[in-house]
């Protein structure tokens, strides 16, 4: 009689299925000769709009002898886990006249030229979907696409370009934009709500009574604890605790949607606060990686020409408007505050990954996240010298450095390095790549 525990064990109950984090007790029961007892490598891609103020983004010095810039200073505590890469470009975003914002989002992960049309979409498969086709079959979800603003895909949003280009960074195929999920509850249920008949009704009953998803699988988790080592019991407790904390925050946004004042429009289950929304999405990415529900995820912090205001940091001018600062110091100062604020949210994500156990290390050790924009200087709509940061890799990437490549080097060259690291090797070309970047990987 078999008494092993599958590494893919989940705790199941009516309407819920909780995937488990990487536990050594589970890995040990797998066939060690298969090489599957090591945590997998995950990939993440985070996009922010409107570029960044170049001289406030770019670090001083290169190699290991560099100093973080004002914008990137929130990353200083993770110095050895961070690789700043300068000189990269997506030059196919700099064609066909007006429409730079639509093109910068469309080319960011595709490295392909976007067809200028409101309805005849064509750009290229994005790197996240390219990777998902090669390693996504090993997980329940091939990939996870998240966002803060829904936007629309129909009509024109920028100089004759379809809104799909402005509001999408992930493309399943050259003609098929991947819809992004902006509602934390929907993401949570996708990760932890089981499929099948009756599951929707069971989830609805649980939400109505505010019963935790953990309550529905309590018996199963208690049984599992008796079959795993004490170190894994602690890891399981930490994971379930973090899961419950995210669930509470998600339910807080639901409560606003379900119980609105009569004279207010019912909100669409999104936090009103940008920071809470962004951090919830980052936390959900962590949970998705932690449970090996997916190894590929992307987050679009806003549409390509977002004009969001940030009163929480005393910036009431629109983001896009400020990016066209025309050299005015007051606007540059406000724009730099936005750039730094967004970087602070990314630093929160890095901290969450680093604080989450995974195998003998942590999730950051086994995750590589690219953070950047498809424009460098929003004031001039430049598509070279892109602001790009890599975080994580646990020795697979050589962190603690600022690398400068010759101006115009394809960003797609870096994508080939990432594919290699994630196990999708022997890919010779992606987009307009002309080789791999030297000195990136260990």
From TrEMBL:
- Which Pfam family, any one of them, does this sequence belong to? HXXSHH
Q: Where is the signal peptide?
A: 1-30
Keywords assigned by UniProt?
Answer: Signal
Source species, domain of life: Bacteria
Q: Which InterPro entries does its entry note?
A: DUF1552, TAT_signal
Q: Is Transcription regulation a UniProt keyword of this protein?
A: no
Protein name per the record: DUF1552 domain-containing protein
According to its UniProt entry, this protein's organism is: Stratiformator vulcanicus
């Amino acid at each position: 009689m078999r008494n092993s525990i599958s590494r893919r064990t989940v705790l199941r109950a009516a309407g819920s299925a909780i995937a488990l984090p990487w536990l050594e007790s589970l890995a040990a029961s797998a066939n060690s000769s298969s090489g599957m007892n090591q945590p997998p490598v995950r990939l993440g891609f985070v996009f922010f709009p409107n570029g960044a103020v170049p001289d406030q983004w770019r670090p001083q010095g290169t190699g290991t002898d560099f100093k973080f810039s004002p914008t990137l200073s929130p990353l200083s505590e993770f110095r050895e886990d961070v690789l700043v890469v300068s000189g990269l470009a997506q030059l196919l975003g700099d064609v066909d006249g007006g429409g730079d914002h639509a093109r910068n989002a469309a080319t960011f992960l595709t490295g392909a030229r976007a067809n200028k049309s409101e309805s005849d979409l064509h750009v290229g498969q994005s790197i996240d979907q390219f990777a998902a086709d090669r390693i996504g079959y090993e997980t329940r979800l091939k990939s996870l696409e998240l966002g803060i603003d829904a936007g629309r895909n129909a009509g024109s949003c920028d100089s004759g370009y379809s809104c799909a280009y402005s509001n999408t960074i992930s493309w399943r195929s050259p003609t098929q934009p991947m819809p992004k999920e902006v509602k934390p509850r929907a993401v949570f249920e996708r990760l932890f709500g089981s499929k099948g008949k009756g599951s929707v009704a069971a989830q609805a009953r649980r939400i109505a009574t505010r019963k935790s998803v953990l309550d529905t699988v309590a018996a199963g988790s208690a049984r599992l604890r008796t079959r795993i080592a004490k170190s894994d019991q602690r890891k399981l407790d930490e994971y379930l605790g973090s899961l419950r904390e995210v669930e509470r925050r998600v339910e807080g946004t639901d409560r606003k949607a379900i119980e609105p004042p009569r004279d207010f429009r019912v909100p669409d289950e999104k936090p009103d606060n940008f920071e809470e929304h962004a951090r919830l999405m980052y936390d959900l990415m962590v949970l998705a990686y932690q449970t090996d529900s997916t190894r590929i995820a992307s987050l679009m912090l806003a549409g390509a020409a977002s004009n969001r205001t940030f009163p929480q940091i005393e910036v009431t001018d629109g983001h896009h408007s400020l990016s066209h600062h025309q050299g005015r110091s007051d606007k540059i100062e406000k724009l730099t505050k936005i750039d730094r604020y967004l970087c602070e949210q990314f630093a929160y994500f890095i901290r969450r990954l680093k604080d989450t156990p995974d195998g003998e290390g942590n999730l950051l050790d086994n995750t590589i996240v690219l953070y950047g924009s498809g424009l460098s200087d929003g004031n001039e709509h430049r598509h070279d010298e892109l602001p790009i940061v890599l975080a994580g890799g646990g020795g697979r990437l050589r962190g603690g450095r600022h690398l400068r490549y010759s101006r115009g080097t394809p960003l797609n060259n870096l994508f080939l390095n990432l594919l290699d690291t994630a196990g999708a090797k022997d890919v010779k070309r992606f987009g307009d790549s002309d080789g791999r970047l030297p000195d990136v990987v260990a």
